[in-house]
Amino acid sequence: MNDAINFMNIEGLKFFGRVNASISHELKNILAIISETTGFLNDLTELAKQGKDLKLSLIESCSKSIAEEIQRGFTTIKQMNSFAHNVDVPIKETNLGDLLDLTVKLSKFLSFASTVHTPAPDQKMKPVLTCPFLLQNLIYQVLCFAYESVGPEGKVDICFNSKDDNGIHLLFSLPVTMETKDFPTEKIQKSADVLGIAITVKNSEFILWIPFSSDKITQMASLL
C-alpha cells in the first residue's frame, strides 16, 4: 500500500508540473496577443496625432480582440484553480463527468491536441470514490496517447456507459486502428492498478472500467 501511495505522490508531482507548464504557456500566449494589440493601438494613436485618419473599425476590432483574450485568460485561470484544488482531499467521492470535462479542457492546451467530443457533464451520475488527482492524471495520459495516435487534425470521441451497478465504463473511440502493443503504457497501467481500474483495448477504442469504489482506494483513504 505504501508503494501505491509513493507512486501516487511522485506521479502527481510530475503531472502537476506538466499541466502548470502548459497553462503558463497558454497564459503567455494570451498576454502576447494583448501586448501586440495594444502596440497596434499605440501606432494608430501616433498616426492620429500626425493628422492621419483614424478608422473606428480598427479600434473596435482591437478592443474586441483584447476583451476576448482577457476572457480567455479568466477562463484559463479558473480551470487552473479547479485543477489545483483536486489535491485538497486525496480520496473523495467525485463526479466523473466534471472531472473528465476539466481534464479535456486542460489537455487542449497541448500543441498536439486533437478535437475531442465529450458528453455533457451529468450531475445525476453516481459519484466514484477515488483519488481524483491520480484519476485525472490517468485520463490525461490516455488523452495524450489518443492525440498522438490520431494527430492534431484527428478527433477522439468519449462517452459513458453507467448501466453497470459496480462502476462506469468510459469509452475512448478513435478513427484509426491503434497499435495495441503500445497501450496501455507501463505508467498508465500502474495508475489503473492503484485506482482499481480495468483497461480493455479493442482496435480503435479503449475502455476504462472505473469502479464506484475499490478495496485498494478504501484502504488508501484510511491511511491518508
Give a description of the structure.
The chain has 224 residues and is an alpha+beta fold. It has 2 domains: 2-85; 90-223, 2-Layer Sandwich (Heat Shock Protein 90). 57% of the residues lie in helices and 16% in strands. Strands 2-4-5-7-6 form a 5-stranded mixed beta sheet. The protein has a two-stranded antiparallel sheet with strand order 1-3. The radius of gyration is 22 Å and the shape is elongated. The model has no long low-confidence stretch (mean pLDDT 88).
List keywords for this structure.
224 residues; alpha+beta; Heat Shock Protein 90; 2 domains; 5-stranded mixed β-sheet; two-stranded antiparallel sheet; 6 helices; 16% strand; elongated
Note the topology:
Elements: H1 2-49, H2 56-84, E1 92-94, H3 96-107, E2 115-117, E3 128-130, H4 132-150, E4 155-161, E5 167-173, H5 186-195, E6 198-202, E7 205-211, H6 215-223
Helix pairs in contact: 1-2, 2-3, 3-4, 4-5
Task: Give a brief description.
The protein has 224 residues and is of the alpha+beta class. It is built from six helices and seven strands.
